[in-house]
Design goal:
Layout (H helix, E strand, L loop, with lengths): L10 E4 L1 E5 L5 E5 L11 E4 L20 E11 L2 E9 L1 H6 L5 E6 L3
Antiparallel strand pairs: 1-4, 2-3, 5-6, 6-7
């Protein structure tokens, strides 16, 4: 299945505006600063849920401070896993690629 934004009615966006690209992908644009050093630009698909996921995608980060990824196994807004690709100045200059797994498990 290929993800598309369409008119955006099946999505919820945070600090960003997303659209389909002519190349068949999706692209996001920041619309707000958000909290924290980098803030967050998120797109949540609201009308589907998946047990497991296999994803193939291309990421293009044109800035020396970025962090892109996928939220998976979300139970609610405070419990999820994030597979992400953090990029800082030195990584950008050296053209290194890192992958990180972050677990959010906030207990009230």
């Amino acid at each position: 299945m290929r993800l598309t934004i369409g008119d955006g009615s099946h999505w919820s966006f945070v600090n960003s505006r997303w659209k389909d690209t002519d190349a068949g992908g999706i692209a996001g644009e920041r619309t707000g600063d958000g909290d924290g050093l980098q803030g967050c630009c998120l797109a949540f698909l609201k009308d589907r849920a998946y047990a497991d996921l296999e994803a193939t995608f291309t990421v293009q980060m044109n800035t020396n401070h970025a962090d892109e990824g996928l939220i998976v196994h979300a139970q609610d807004p405070t419990r999820f896993a994030l597979i992400h690709f953090p990029q800082t100045g030195q990584q950008f200059r050296a053209q290194h690629f890192w992958v990180a797994l972050s677990i959010a498990d906030r207990k009230s």
